[in-house]
Amino acid sequence: MAVTRRDTLKSGSAALLALGFPSSLQAEEVTAEQAIAAFVKGGEILQGGITLDLEDTAEDGFRVPVSVTAEGAEAILIVAPANPVPPIALVAFGALAADQQLSTRMRLARTQQVLALARMPDGTVRQVSKHVDVVVGGCGA
């Protein structure tokens, strides 16, 4: 008897339910302030010291390229406070990371100030922000 994709999905779903995996997951609503506070962990926030590459005007808010470079950083956080879910990306770097850079695409709901934060090994956090004009919003807001 051949095992079909449908059989595999059924048995996989049954296994997840047996392990107590919830049938539907919902992200908690996290504000920009909560995300930043959790990232900073009581450390000092200093302006500058990292690079945020982001276009000034986003014609299409559905896919806005963004790049953050923070030499020596342990972690990078990108936050878009006016989005329905403000935290965009969080990346931690290991000791063997060749460079500390994050490049991705994000959705922006509307015109806003995008923040990038980098946590340094000494506990300080570097922050930079950039204003982005969004022509067509990408989050349905």
Identify the notable features of this structure and list them briefly:
141 residues, alpha+beta, Immunoglobulin-like, 3-stranded antiparallel beta sheet
Instruction: Give the beta-strand count.
Output: 9
- Uncertain segments are 14-26
Query: Major beta sheet, specifics?
Result: 6 strands, mixed
Number of domains: 1
H/E element sequence: HHEEEEEEEEE
**Structural shape:** globular
Distance between the termini: 50 Å
CATH fold description: Immunoglobulin-like
Molecular structure report:
There is one protein chain. The protein has 141 residues and is of the alpha+beta class. It has one domain: SoxY domain (Immunoglobulin-like). The chain has 2 helices and 9 strands; from the N terminus they run ααβββββββββ. A hairpin with a 7-residue loop joins strand 5 and strand 6. The longest helix has 14 residues, at 5-18.
Helix and strand arrangement:
Layout: H1 5-18, H2 32-40, E1 45-47, E2 51-54, E3 57-60, E4 64-69, E5 75-79, E6 87-92, E7 101-106, E8 112-119, E9 125-136
Parallel strand pairs: 1-9, 3-9
Antiparallel strand pairs: 2-4, 4-7, 5-6, 5-8, 8-9
Concise synopsis of the structure shown:
The protein is α+β, with helices and mostly antiparallel strands and 141 residues long. The chain has two helices and nine strands; from the N terminus they run H-H-E-E-E-E-E-E-E-E-E. The chain starts with a helix and ends in a 5-residue tail after the last strand.
